[in-house]
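Lecture notes, part 5. Sequence design as translation. It can be helpful to think of inverse folding as translation between two languages: the language of shapes and the language of residues. The source text, in structure tokens, appears below.
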């Protein structure tokens, strides 16, 4: 009984729907149009598992050979000039970056200089860093998926009236049919984001790990809420707006990892312009208002609409923060003459000091 009361309270029409709209308006009937159903949000879960398997196969059996063919370097783990040390390994397993006090204590205990111990830990951290080939295959998968979803989204939305006039997002609402092409657009995108929440903990760590995790969770909640309330037309605009730029960034990284710097710089420039236009102009000026004020002006505000608007604003804040990071890359690129590093990449260790050179250290290239 308690569970039933919780379900009734959670799915309260006062929370989810605007005034004069009920769940019966969104029910499916034989011979009628298809309305999205909340229970269908479970369908992408097995697809997410399949997508992760497909990703594994593509990365290892397609993208890795392509990377090797293009000359992408295979990681060579080396501790040249720094022999394995059991005591230092034990300390490393407890913490990869020892404090000055710990380094001083180890120096006395092992009769080694503090500089030698610092170099050992720096090299040991570099040894655990992912290789360029791993980064190339990861970017290749993202590039392929993002490009495929952008292409599919543009193909199915090109003929939709709400793609050109956002007022159609709410015309005839809630009696708006979700066609099969739009249905699969949502299901495939949800499958990817379901899997991304899991795979992010296994992927190469980025500086914005938790920002990206927040992005994935907000995206899933937005898609779930828009699906449940049949805000699907507006949801497709949000999706295609985001899909427009991501493959350009991953393509630039692929070119960088394979040392095609001219292609990298060109793709990054296109990415920068598209990011500004889609994430800082189109999204906040047209798409967010179309989903909030467009619905509110016709049907009034609801708790669900307020929550979805808040999530859209969170996404916009992330867009601004990432644009700042991207602008730093562009600024440094203009100074150096090439795109040197993905500001979102994991912190790289520098192994080019004079001491390391004297110790025959391997050179560590920036991500």
């Amino acid at each position: 009984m308690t569970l039933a009361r919780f379900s009734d309270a959670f799915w309260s029409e006062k929370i989810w729907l605007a005034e004069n709209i009920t769940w019966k308006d969104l029910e499916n009937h034989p011979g009628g149009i298809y309305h999205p159903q909340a229970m269908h949000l479970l369908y992408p879960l097995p697809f997410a598992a399949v997508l992760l398997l497909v990703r594994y196969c593509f990365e290892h059996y397609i993208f890795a050979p392509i990377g090797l063919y293009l000359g992408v370097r295979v990681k060579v783990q080396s501790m040249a000039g720094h022999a394995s040390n059991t005591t230092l390994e034990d300390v490393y397993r407890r913490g990869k970056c020892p404090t000055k006090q710990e380094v001083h204590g180890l120096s006395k205990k092992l009769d080694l200089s503090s500089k030698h111990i610092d170099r050992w830990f720096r090299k040991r951290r570099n040894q655990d860093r992912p290789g360029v080939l791993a980064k190339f295959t990861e970017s290749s998968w993202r590039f392929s998926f993002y490009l495929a979803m952008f292409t599919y989204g543009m193909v199915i939305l090109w003929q939709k009236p709400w793609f050109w006039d956002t007022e159609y997002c709410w015309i005839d609402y809630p009696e708006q049919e979700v066609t099969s092409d739009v249905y699969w657009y949502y299901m495939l995108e949800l499958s990817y984001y379901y899997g991304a929440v899991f795979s992010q903990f296994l992927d190469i760590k980025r500086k914005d790990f938790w920002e990206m995790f927040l992005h994935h969770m907000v995206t899933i909640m937005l898609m779930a809420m828009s699906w449940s309330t049949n805000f699907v037309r507006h949801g497709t605009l949000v999706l295609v707006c985001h899909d427009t730029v991501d493959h350009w960034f991953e393509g630039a990284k692929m070119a960088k990892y394979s040392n095609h710097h001219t292609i990298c710089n060109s793709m990054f420039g296109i990415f920068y312009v598209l990011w500004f236009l889609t994430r800082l102009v189109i999204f906040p000026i047209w798409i967010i208002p179309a989903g909030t004020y467009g619905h509110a002006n016709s049907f009034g505000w609801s708790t669900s609409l307020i929550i979805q608007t808040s999530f859209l604003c969170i996404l916009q804040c992330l867009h601004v923060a990432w644009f700042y990071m991207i602008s730093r890359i562009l600024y440094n690129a203009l100074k150096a003459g090439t795109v040197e590093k993905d500001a979102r990449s994991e912190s790289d260790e520098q192994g080019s000091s004079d001491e390391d050179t004297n110790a025959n250290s391997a050179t560590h290239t920036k991500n």
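The translated text above is only one of many valid answers, since several sequences can fold into similar shapes. The chain has 14 helices and no strands.
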